[in-house]
């Protein structure tokens, strides 16, 4: 019953999103809160966030395939499902942000090697195909209890640098813009990767805990413990890099950084920034306490707080705050409109509906082959 209700709510979100997108398609991006001074907003913020979630599966693939850690055997398939749904959502956010569908095809039909958006779409497409092949192969392997072919392991290993590349290219979309002081720093890519390796595995832990409660599908306590350790370390690095950026902006005294700092700490974006830091710090405390990590309820709360912290700080504050100050020294005003919010909800609805379907298939395949385990 709960599954049907969840599916109905997600389907409703998709329908509302399609209606809102039809309005945007007819009237143009004027129905959004975007402007010449703030040309990127909620859509690109979600692109940045979902690419990070997609890249995070490397934290499961790496120990399983390179270090032969069998504890991650069941988490591998869940990681691939999360990556597929996240990267598809990211590509849909690119689609809706470009305004007209023909512009997306122009990027592919008329490639411009000097355009980072071209490389970003290429990287996302390749990563999506890789994960679809890996997931399909893992399904057949799990259901039949067969041995994975050699090419399957080779493809999985090749996906590790590819996962790092998709988020690095996304970071370079911002880091190369000299007119935006807040983004013009070499630390953007490391910040993105650290936040991805915190939020993605946290989401995976949350999914695993919920599946165990709802379906009895258990990835094993050792795997969850190791994944929580990864989340704790990555979250620590993410918070440290954020504080280093704060020090550079505050102590350096550069006018551009000072204006940006005022906007994200004391201006309209302050609630997002502070919420990100507070939630991240609270989650880190829980994940570092061994007794708390043994409590599923606290772990779930910490994982939700981690994902929310990254969304607040990286998925909105970083993008919108990056346009302060404008090249003219002004403070652009941006706030998402209802069409933007509806379309964003619709895109997430598509991703979550796909995750529900793929998750159900994955659990069924693993349970079917429970007495004939798949081997590498």
Keywords:
376 residues; mainly alpha; Formate dehydrogenase/DMSO reductase fold; 77% helix
Briefly, what is this?
The protein is an all-alpha fold and 376 residues long.
The CATH C-level name is Mainly Alpha
Strand content: under 5%
What is the CATH topology assignment? Formate dehydrogenase/DMSO reductase fold
Extended strand count = 0
Domain unit count: 1
Cα-atom radius of gyration:
21 Å
For this structure, what is the CATH homologous superfamily? Formate dehydrogenase/DMSO reductase domain
The main pleated sheet reads as: none
Low-confidence region ranges: none
The helix count comes to 14
CATH architecture: Up-down Bundle
Mean model confidence by pLDDT: 87
The chain-level structural class is: mainly alpha
Q: Provide the helix percentage.
A: over 70%
Q: What is the first-to-last residue Cα distance?
A: 37 Å
Gross morphology is globular
Q: Give the SSE order as H and E letters.
A: HHHHHHHHHHHHHH
Question: Would you write up a description of this structure?
Answer:
With 376 residues, the chain is mainly α. It has one domain: Up-down Bundle (Formate dehydrogenase/DMSO reductase fold). It is built from 14 helices and no strands. It has helices spanning 2-27, 42-55, 58-66, 73-97, 101-109, 116-144, 150-175, 188-215, 221-252, 255-265, 270-288, 290-293, 296-321, 338-368. The two termini are 37 Å apart.
């Amino acid at each position: 019953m709960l599954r049907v209700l969840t599916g109905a709510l997600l389907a409703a979100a998709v329908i509302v999103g399609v209606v809102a997108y039809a309005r945007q398609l007819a009237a143009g991006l004027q129905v959004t809160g975007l402007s010449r001074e703030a040309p990127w907003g909620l859509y690109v913020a979600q692109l940045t966030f979902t690419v990070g979630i997609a890249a995070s599966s490397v934290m499961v693939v790496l120990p399983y395939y390179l270090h032969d850690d069998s504890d991650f055997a069941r988490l591998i398939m869940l990681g691939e499902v999360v990556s597929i749904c996240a990267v598809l959502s990211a590509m849909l956010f690119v689609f809706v942000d470009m305004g007209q569908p023909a512009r997306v095809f122009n990027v592919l039909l008329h490639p411009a090697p000097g355009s980072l958006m071209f490389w970003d779409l290429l990287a996302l497409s390749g990563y999506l195909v890789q994960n679809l092949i890996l997931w399909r192969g893992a399904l057949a392997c799990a259901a039949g209890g067969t041995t994975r072919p050699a090419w399957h392991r080779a493809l999985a290993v090749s996906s590790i640098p590819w996962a790092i590349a998709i988020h690095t290219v996304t970071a370079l979309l911002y880091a190369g813009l000299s007119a935006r002081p807040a983004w013009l720093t070499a630390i953007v890519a490391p910040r993105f990767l650290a936040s991805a390796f915190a939020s993605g595995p946290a989401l995976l832990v949350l999914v695993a805990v919920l599946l165990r409660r709802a379906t009895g599908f258990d990835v094993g306590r050792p795997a969850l413990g190791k994944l929580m350790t990864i989340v704790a370390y990555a979250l620590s690095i993410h918070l440290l890099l954020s504080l280093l950026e704060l020090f550079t902006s505050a102590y350096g005294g550069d006018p551009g950084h000072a204006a940006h700092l005022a906007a994200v700490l004391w201006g309209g974006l302050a609630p997002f920034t502070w919420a990100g830091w507070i939630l991240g710090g609270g989650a880190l405390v829980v994940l570092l306490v061994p007794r708390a990590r043994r409590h599923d309820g606290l772990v779930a709360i910490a994982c939700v707080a981690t994902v929310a912290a990254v969304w607040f700080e990286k998925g909105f504050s970083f993008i919108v705050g990056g346009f302060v100050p404008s090249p003219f020294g002004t403070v652009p005003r941006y706030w998402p409109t209802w069409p933007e919010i509806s379309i964003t909800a619709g895109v997430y609805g598509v991703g979550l509906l796909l995750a529900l379907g793929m998750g159900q298939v994955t659990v069924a395949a693993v349970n079917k082959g429970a007495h004939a385990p798949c081997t590498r």
